[in-house]
Design goal:
Radius of gyration: 15 Å
CATH superfamily: START domain
Largest sheet: 7 strands, antiparallel
Structural class: alpha+beta
Strand content: 35-45%
Mean pLDDT: 97
Shape: globular
Number of strands: 7
CATH topology: Alpha-D-Glucose-1,6-Bisphosphate, Chain A, domain 4
Length: 153
């Protein structure tokens, strides 16, 4: 099963990054240009993620239907100063989508943000891995843009 791990240092306090990571509006902001997520069940996202499952329809590049996926939100216990948000999801294409976000303070007003993902797309794993890696690089670039804009969407 492929694993992808990408980290960035953000010029923002960890508390602020953590608060933003827990908002549902961030999902479509950081994925804009690659994938859009439309809630199915429940029919509307809450303002902030809560533990539970969220069925979504996905659209590639804003228009191309990509099927549905279940986002499975969990909040594992922190590891020291590092807080964790987990999407233990699944869908038709990705039978397993285990994405962990780690938010760790690193000095005055800075944060190490890490996306770590284990996924299973079956026989398509080798094709999916570079696409998924680029997707997470895009997400972190969008995070940096959001921070540079003082968290204004």
């Amino acid at each position: 099963m492929p694993t992808i791990k990408i980290s960035s240092i953000f010029d923002a306090p960890a508390d602020r990054v953590w608060e933003e990571a827990n908002t549902t509006r961030l999902l479509n902001y950081v994925t804009r240009g690659r994938i859009a997520f439309d809630p199915i069940d429940p029919p509307q996202f809450p303002e902030r993620w809560a533990e539970g499952e969220y069925k979504v329809a996905m659209r590639g590049f804003g228009t191309m239907p990509l099927g549905s996926q279940t986002i499975g939100i969990e909040f594992p216990p922190p590891q020291g100063d590092t807080r964790i948000l987990r999407d233990n999801g699944h869908g038709r294409f990705f039978r397993k989508w285990d994405h962990r976000i780690y938010v760790e303070p690193v000095g005055e007003g800075r944060t190490r943000y890490t996306d770590e993902l284990d996924f299973d797309a079956g026989v398509l794993n080798a094709i999916a891995k570079p696409i998924v890696r680029e997707f997470y690089q895009h997400r972190q670039a969008r995070w940096k843009k959001l921070i540079a804009n003082d968290f204004r969407y």
